[in-house]
Structure formats: C-alpha cells, structure tokens
From TrEMBL:
It comes from the Bacteria. This is Aminotransferase. InterPro entries: Aminotransferase_I/II_large (IPR004839), Kynurenine-oxoglutarate_AT (IPR051326), PyrdxlP-dep_Trfase (IPR015424), PyrdxlP-dep_Trfase_major (IPR015421), PyrdxlP-dep_Trfase_small (IPR015422). GO terms for cellular component: cytoplasm. One of its GO terms (molecular function) is kynurenine-oxoglutarate transaminase activity. The keyword Ribosomal protein does not apply. It holds the Pfam family Aminotran_1_2. Residues 24-377 form the Aminotransferase class I/classII large domain. CDD domains: AAT_like. Its cofactor is pyridoxal 5'-phosphate. Keywords: Aminotransferase, Pyridoxal phosphate, Transferase. Belongs to the class-I pyridoxal-phosphate-dependent aminotransferase family.
Length: 381
C-alpha cells in the first residue's frame, strides 16, 4: 500500500492527559487552568451566540477584536499598530504559528529554534520544508549563550522562532539577550516569529518586553498572543498576530487556507476581555505567582530541586540524584501510575539528544488541587 507519513508523533500533552485519566491522577501535566476565566467574558460570548450573527466573520477577524488587539499593543508596549492592516485573528496561537511558518518558510530555509522548545515548533517547521537549527538555553538559569546565538545564524537563516516568556523553562529573556537577538536579526535580515502567549503571566511585577519593540524589529516581527492564556480560556482557541502589513498579508493568505476564520462570538468576547482594566491583569499574575510559590515550596519541602520560575504557569524541577528513575520519562510514568500525579518530561521539548533530568509541573490549579498533589507525592516518596 501507499505509505502514509509517519514522522508525526503523539504530543506529550495528549499522552500525559490520557495517562492522568486512566490512573485518576491529579493532572499537573498538560497546561490548562482548572477554573474557567472571567464570567463577564463568558457571558459576552454567550450573548454573541444568541444575538448573532453566527455566520463566517471577516477572514482577518472581527473588527472589534482587531481593534482591541491593536489597542492592547499600544497600551502594554507602546507599539503603534494599524488594526486594519497589521492584525489578524486565528484559531489559537497554534494556528498562528502554522500561518506564520507557512507564510515565511520555504523548503531549505533555516529556522532558528531555541531549546527547550514548545512541541509543535519542530513538526511545523519540518513539514513546511524548513531546516530547524536548534540552539539551547541551559538550566538552571536557562541562559542564552550569545556567542552560540551569533554562530547559529547563516546566509540561509530565514526566521527565528522565539518563545518568550518560555514554556517549559519559565524563563523571561533578558534585555541583553533580546538586544543581541534583535541586532543579529537586523544584521542578517532575518524575520522573527515571537510566540508571546505568556506575555501577561510574568511574576514579581516584571514587565514583558516584546522583541518587536527592539530597534529594527518592528517590520520583521510577527508577534503572537493567545486569549487561552490571557483569559484562562484555553478551549476557546482564539489567537492573534500583530506585524507589519507586508508580513500580515502573506500570513493572511496562509490563514485563509488553514481555518479561514474563528468563531465570531468568541472573538467578540475576547475583544471585551482585552479592554479589562489593569486590575484584571495584576490579579492574573499575582494569583499565579501565589500558586507558583505554593507549589514550589511544597516541592522544595519534599526535597525537589526547583528551578527558577519567572513567568508562565510551569515549574521545572531537577530530579537528578533523587533515585526516582533513570530518565524523566520513566519518573513521569512512575509518578502518574504510582503516585497519582501527572507531570510532563522536559525531554519532550527537545529535537534530540535531550537532557533527562527535568520534569515539569503545571501549577494553574486550585490551591486544594496543588495541596493534594503535594500530599500524594509525600506519600509516594
Ligand atoms: N501549551 C500547553 C502545555 O504546554 C498544552 C497545549 C496542548 O495540549 N496542545 O502544556
């Protein structure tokens, strides 16, 4: 028979969520909050369903949401964005990533990826015919080696795909790192696809700085956000891309052949959400920060070596020397089956030759759920 392509693997999130269900485990694996986002946003979505229209919205997105995205760029980052030509709405950041990659990457183009990397990057770049060039940040600080960064650029480099703040490392790239990355992109005439879905999940009052706001980057950056993260509504899959008009144009061409549109009521509700006042955004990061501390302290008390976490809703721990198993995969399997706690092996975020000493806990869960996970781990250890 004619062979099908077998190069795509089951994502680790699906694998771990299935195992969590099968073993009735506390699910700290796949990243999603266990309480839905703001009720007023959900009510707005419900109204949109009833009032309609429920037909195909404009291909680029509902005007109210495109306007809200442009406004948010100005409000949070001082970026001037024309809502009509520089914003496009997608079905989640995942579609946004695919659209950007389909728009920019041609067979043979090199795409710079920073490991650990979010799991859809590699398959998307590869299926587009791109050549991934992987560069690592190393724990515990996940620092970027600037010499290695400079050496990773070549005449074939078409784009760099940056996830900042970074999943699973919970790292916020430093000003120095971003400055150098921007300088190299300008020097080598390279585009940046910036996955910034965790832009509002930064702790200790830290402020997210989009690579797009660095000198020379405004016209070579596609900046991606997600309502799933910003409003704790991961199932909605509403994403948005901001970029120069001449980049949004080819991205829109890709989008029209991937999904064409995104549900109009959800777009309308997210537009409403983006207009929320500062107190919402402060609450979001403060609430997650306290959960981070609860989980980190619980894990430290159990003897885990918890790595720094400056953003996102993930904590990484170094399990080396604990005698829990040979590899992160084995430890995660034991944890879900024996302890009843689902986590994610960090080796899943590498394209090969991965370190095997790190596992990821998702902490955007109710406090009693985090306590239950800690209690189960205490019994098991
Ligand atoms: N981004 C989520 C995580 O890192 C998972 C999303 C998904 O399942 N595709 O856990």
């Amino acid at each position: 028979t004619n062979p099908v392509f077998t190069g795509l693997e089951t994502t680790i999130f699906e694998t771990m969520s299935r195992l969590a269900m099968a073993h009735d485990a506390v699910n700290l694996g796949q990243g999603f909050p266990d309480v839905d986002g703001p009720e007023d946003i959900r009510q707005e979505a419900a109204r949109g369903l009833i009032d309609g229209p429920n037909q195909y919205p404009p291909m680029l997105g509902v005007p109210a949401l495109r306007q809200a995205v442009a406004k948010a760029n100005k409000r949070f980052y001082g970026l001037d964005v024309d809502w009509q030509s520089q914003v496009i709405i997608t079905s989640g950041a995942t579609e946004a990533l695919a659209d950007c990659i389909f728009a920019l990457v041609e067979p043979g183009d090199e795409v710079l990826l920073i490991e650990p990397l979010y799991d859809c990057y590699l398959p998307m770049v590869q299926r587009a015919g791109g050549v991934p060039v992987r560069l690592r940040v190393t724990p515990p600080e996940w620092a970027l080696d600037l010499d290695a960064l400079a050496a990773a650029f070549s005449p074939k480099t078409k784009a760099v795909l940056l996830n900042n703040p970074m999943n699973p490392a919970a790292k916020v790239f430093t000003d120095e790192e971003l400055t150098e990355l921007a300088r190299l992109c300008v020097q080598h005439d390279v585009y940046a696809i910036c996955d910034e879905v965790y832009e509002h999940l930064v702790f200790e009052g830290g402020k997210h700085r989009p690579l797009m706001s660095y000198p020379g980057m405004e016209n070579r950056t596609l900046r991606i956000g997600s309502a799933g993260k910003t409003f704790s509504l991961t199932g909605w899959k509403v994403g948005y891309i901001t970029g120069a008009a001449n980049l949004i144009e080819p991205v829109a061409k890709a989008h029209q052949f991937v999904t064409f549109t995104t549900p109009p009521n959800l777009q309308r509700a997210v537009a409403f959400g983006l207009g929320k006042d500062d107190s919402y955004y402060h609450w979001l990061s403060a609430d997650l920060q306290s959960k981070r501390d609860r989980m980190a302290n619980g894990l430290k008390d159990l003897g885990f070596n918890v790595l720094p976490c400056d953003a996102t809703y993930f904590l990484t721990v170094d399990i080396s020397g604990m005698g829990l198993g040979e590899t992160d995969v084995e430890v995660c399997q034991r944890l879900v089956k024996e302890a009843g706690v689902a986590t994610v092996p960090v080796s899943a975020f590498y394209g090969g030759d991965a370190p095997v000493d790190y596992i990821r806990f998702c902490f955007c869960k109710q406090d009693h759920v985090l306590e239950e996970a800690i209690a189960r781990l205490a019994v098991w250890l």
